[in-house]
Structures are given as structure tokens and as C-alpha cells.
């Protein structure tokens, strides 16, 4: 029976919950009108890997290294020093601190990120990012990032679309870092990519939209439902995430008139790719039962994680 | 020949320019891929009337009047005094000043606008606005706002869609004031409405997105190309506007690889509804020829302006 829906999902509670939910909102007299069938997906850790570091950080480290090669004085300071030395412990610690609520080093990181694109046109940045996706390899899986996406989640997006849903990405990652790959990797066009944003200005002489040195907003935590409303103007029916920063979004959807909230749990220790981790997700996992989130166990609920590289 | 495209447009230069442009980007070996066929439309003065005052201001004045009835001390101050007295000269002058670059009274107006929705959930506001659209009549045309939309422009949106375009609204008006009517009036769903925004916050206890007392941004002038990029992530092929605040958007589109920029000119003195006006559009009209904007004359280029009321 190769026509069974969601073939990369193991028969079990998570898959059942999805199939039942989709049937409940698409069949019978209580079916939700097609235009209201919206689903939202976090990206890092939900649609693709986020370990050993988010893909965007891999790109950024490459760019910092190139900047420090062009201007060696930069290498005296963080985060360039870490980028040049290849010892990314400092960066890892900065992200760990962020997950624990301490933004001190992350603000240094954010400033240095904004500096990379200051004055660049949005189209130049898109080209630079596209070049990265063409050439970079995942740091531990040693395969193109194209092959580091989670097959069961892409399958879920296609399954939802077959049932009249429109899918969006709602990520803490930079919106414009995702856009050059989302159509190809996930079948999601740029207008349906919601993410963090660098400041923009309009350059009238060149008729170009350019980045400023300011960070605009981090699309994480409470900001996710806010940005969902700003961009979509509807409360979605289904949300999927994997970390503490997804809790408000999952809750917003779960507490609508009808809503399914999926929380991907990286408990996979079966050697299929990602190592297991709870970091950054402990609060979400602890709250899942009270809040009615459906936990998706990578170990138990997915029979396939990645495509063949 | 009732199958002729754009039947409410008079045979002439503007209609020819549209037909030739659409053929050039949709036919032959240089056709632009469907996913890149994006068109953007200003709303007030482009898709519907903006005189004697923008529709949103009519709604706001109603709400201010209701607020001052509930709390009479408010009526001692502007803009409530104007709303209660029905003498809207003060408001008209505030808007005239804005068009002349003086924002002093407009900031009082904006503060009082934000106060109306402070703490309200986005869904409550949508209900209040929908009720207004159900009952309000255009102040001079004396017909529902549903019938104060420009037939030739709605025809143009459908014509573009038949040729693979996706249409968006990009207005200086409040995004969430437009969303409750855009699907019904224009066939444009809420996720394709770009406009000015009030601040939002997430109310975790209620799982609601609510307005703050802050104004977030005015989607006018340079902000239009910025918001187009933020929301759509592509440079559109066609833009239509009617006032000075549309110039950066029109220019951004006109100076892409291919682009048609339409500037609606309210020169209609034929008694078909709107009185003629250039106010707020003088700079745009003066720049049209240099910048390659195609001027659409309401008088000459449209054979029908409104549906029968």
C-alpha cells in the first residue's frame, strides 16, 4: 500500500493525531473553508537540522572569516576570532546562554551579523546566500544542506496541501537567509517565509531595497504569533515547532477554535543522523501535556529522517 | 465583442500600455515565470475613492464620536471635538498639512487612532470594522463603500490573474482595517494585504494577539518598497498608485528588469462620481514623464468608474 499517507511516519499516536485532525477540519459539515486552512512550521530543528549549529550560523561564520581575511584587525575581536580560529566554542556558549535567557554575547553576534549586510541590496544578499547553499556541506553529516531536511515534515506539508492547506514557515532564523532555498527544499515560496528581519531602507537613486546596520526583530517566542498575524491575518489551524521559542505559537494555534500543535522531540539515538538533544526545548517538552501539544518523537514516530544523501 | 479584455477601459494609450506589457511578460521566449508575476496596488484613490476623506477616517470619526459620547470630557480636545461637532474642517486641514509635509496635527490624529484599539484583540477589531462596512455609506456618493470601488481597477486585477499574476494591495491605510473587506470587494485575501500597522503584543493568558497603544509604521513613500520586500520577497512587475506617496513604489517597479508603473490621475470632471483633484499627487504627476510612469486618466481612460449602486 504505497498510497498510504505519510509513509515516512511510523504508525502511532502522532501520525494518528495528524490524520484525525486533518479529517476533522476537511471532511463533513464542520469542514473549515479552504482559505482558512493555514499551517505554520518552525524551520531550525523542525524542518531541518539545527545541530551542531543552525545553518545560518555556518554561513555567517564563513562570511566573518572572509571579512577577517580582508581586514586582519577584525580577528582580534569576537566573534571574528572564533570564526578565524575555527574554534566555535565561544559561539556555542553564546547560543547556550541565549537559550538560558542571557543575551549578552548574542547581542555581539547580532551586531556582527548586521554589519555583514549593512548597505547590501536584498538581491545581492540573496545571491550570496544562494552561493552558500550551492557549495556548503553540513558540518557533521557531510552532505549538502539540501539533504539535511526532515523527510517526514516535508511529507506532512505536501499532505496538508493535498487537503487544501497553505503552509508557511515561521522561523527565528533570518527571513532572507531562508528565502533562497525554501521553494527548492520545501516547496514554500518566498512570500510564505516569515522570519527574523534586518532593518531595511529604500535607496531611491539605485531603486534598491538595502539592509541597514540595525536588527529589526527576532521572530521568536511571543513574536511568532504577532508576525503570523501581521503576515497572514488569520489564526492557523496547525503549527509545528521544536523548542521553547515555539511555545507561544503552538499555544496560539492550539487554543483557536480548532488547532493541532506538534512538538518535534529530538530523542533519536538510533544513529540515523542527528544526535538526541533536549537543549532549548526542555520548557516546551515539560509543558506539552498541560498545553495539549502532540509530541512527535523522532525516534519512534519517524521511520525515515533524511533522504539518501 | 464582449470578450474584449478590460471592457471598462477606453481604447487608448493607457489600455494599450497594459495590454502590451502583459503580453510582453507572459508570451514568447522571454515570458517571466508565473511565480514572479506579482502586481501591487495602492488602495485609497487607486482601488476606491479617497474623497471627501479616506474610508478609514470615516470609521475612525464614528469611533471617536462614540468614545466622546461615553466620556464627554474627551470632546474638549481634538480630534474628538471635530468628530462630535461633525465639523471635520480640522481633520481635513490636518491631512492637507500631511500632504504638504507637516505632520504636527497628524501625530495627534495617529495617537487618538492608536488609543481606539489599545488592548483590543485583532479579532475584535476585525468584527468592529466588518460592522462598519455592513452599515456605513460613502459621505458624498451616498452608497455603500462596496459600491465606491473602481470597476476598471478590479477588472485589471482579474485580467492580470488570468495571465498568471498574483495581486497584492500595498496601501498607506491600516492593514487590519482593509482586511475585513478586501476578499469581498477586490478578491484579495488578507495575507495579500500590506498596509500601515499598529503595534501588536501577544497576550499569553488569552492566547490572543492584541494592539498596543503604539503606532508601528506608516506604509507610505519609501516604506512601500521596503514592505513589499518584507512581505513578498520579490520585486513586482506592475504597480498602480495615485499619489506622491506611491512614487518610490512605482519607481522601484518601473526600474526592475521589466516593469509597468500606472499612475491614476483623478481628472474626472464628467460628473461620474469623484470630483477631479490633484491634491497629494502633484509631485507624482509632474515626475510621471521623466520616470516613465503611465498616467491613467479617469476622464479619458475609464468608460465606467463605479458599479451601479
TrEMBL record, chains A, B:
Annotated transmembrane regions: none
Keyword tags: Hydrolase
Keyword Hydrolase: yes
InterPro entries: HAD-like_sf, HAD_sf
UniProt-recorded Gene Ontology molecular function terms: hydrolase activity
Stated name of the protein: Haloacid dehalogenase-like hydrolase
Amino acid at each position: 500500500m504505497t498510497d498510504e499517507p505519510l509513509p515516512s511516519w511510523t504508525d502511532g499516536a502522532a501520525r494518528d493525531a495528524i490524520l484525525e485532525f486533518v479529517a476533522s477540519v476537511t471532511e463533513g459539515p464542520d469542514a473549515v473553508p479552504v482559505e482558512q486552512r493555514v499551517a505554520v512550521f518552525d524551520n531550525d530543528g523542525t524542518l531541518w537540522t539545527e545541530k551542531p549549529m543552525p545553518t545560518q550560523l555556518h554561513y555567517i561564520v564563513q562570511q566573518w572569516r572572509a571579512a577577517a581575511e580582508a581586514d586582519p584587525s577584525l580577528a582580534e575581536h569576537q566573534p571574528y576570532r572564533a570564526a578565524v580560529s575555527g574554534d566555535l566554542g565561544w559561539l556555542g556558549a553564546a547560543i547556550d546562554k541565549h537559550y538560558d535567557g542571557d543575551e549578552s554575547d548574542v547581542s555581539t553576534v547580532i551586531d556582527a551579523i548586521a554589519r555583514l549586510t549593512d548597505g547590501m541590496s536584498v538581491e545581492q544578499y540573496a545571491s550570496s546566500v544562494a552561493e552558500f547553499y550551492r557549495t556548503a556541506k553540513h558540518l557533521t553529516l557531510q552532505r549538502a544542506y539540501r539533504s539535511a531536511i526532515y523527510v517526514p515534515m516535508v511529507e506532512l506539508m505536501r499532505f496538508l496541501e493535498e487537503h487544501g492547506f497553505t503552509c508557511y514557515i515561521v522561523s527565528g532564523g533570518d527571513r532572507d537567509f531562508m528565502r533562497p532555498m525554501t521553494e527548492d527544499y520545501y516547496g514554500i515560496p518566498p512570500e510564505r517565509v516569515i522570519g527574523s528581519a534586518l532593518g531595511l531602507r529604500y535607496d531611491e537613486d539605485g531603486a534598491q531595497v538595502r539592509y541597514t546596520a540595525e536588527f529589526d526583530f527576532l521572530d521568536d517566542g511571543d513574536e511568532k504569533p504577532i508576525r503570523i498575524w501581521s503576515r497572514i491575518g488569520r489564526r492557523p489551524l496547525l503549527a509545528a515547532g521544536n523548542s521553547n521559542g515555539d511555545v507561544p505559537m503552538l499555544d496560539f494555534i492550539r487554543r483557536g477554535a480548532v488547532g493541532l500543535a506538534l512538538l518535534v522531540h529530538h530523542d533519536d539515538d538510533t544513529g540515523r543522523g542527528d544526535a538526541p538533544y533536549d537543549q532549548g526545548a526542555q520548557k516546551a517538552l515539560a509543558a506539552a501535556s498541560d498545553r495539549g501539544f502532540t509530541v512527535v518523537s523522532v525516534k519512534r514516530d519517524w521511520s525515515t529522517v533524511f533522504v539518501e544523501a
